[in-house]
Design goal:
The protein is α+β, with helices and mostly antiparallel strands and 126 residues long. It is built from two helices and eight strands; from the N terminus they run ααββββββββ. The chain has an eight-stranded antiparallel beta barrel. A hairpin with a 2-residue loop joins strand 4 and strand 5.
Length: 126
């Protein structure tokens, strides 16, 4: 009877351990994507970047000019991929689409890539 009781306790402990590990296993890119969600503005408040929960983004002037829409994906802790399928008048004239180097530090989002995102810092809109 003692052996059976120990075996049951051991099995329950293993199941509990597996459940605990599974609950806390959020990947770093998932965590960064959650931290990106929201509105961001450049220092003078003329340019905005909005990341949505569904993986979409919007970039452009706060006035609504030169707006680019597309999808984003965090590739690593310092690489972000932006895609767009816009063409014609809404084409990606600012070269937003592509893989960009970024750093997220609290309420600051710094890009060190090419095009419109070269050495620019955005601040979380409050």
């Amino acid at each position: 009877m003692k052996v059976m009781k120990k075996a049951i306790i051991f099995m329950v402990s293993i199941v509990f351990l597996i459940l605990c590990i599974g609950c806390g296993s959020e990947s770093n890119s998932d965590s960064l994507e959650k931290k990106l969600v929201g509105s961001w503005n450049d220092e003078d408040g003329t340019e905005m970047m909005v990341f949505y929960k569904d993986g979409a983004y919007r970039h452009g002037r706060v006035t609504g000019a030169n707006v680019v829409n597309g999808d984003y994906k965090v590739l690593s802790e310092n690489e972000l991929e932006l895609t767009t399928n816009q063409s014609g008048l809404g084409q990606d004239m600012l070269h937003i689409a592509g893989i960009h180097k970024f750093e997220l530090d609290g309420d600051e989002l710094h890009f060190s890539s090419r095009g419109a995102l070269e050495d620019v810092t955005y601040y979380r809109a409050k």
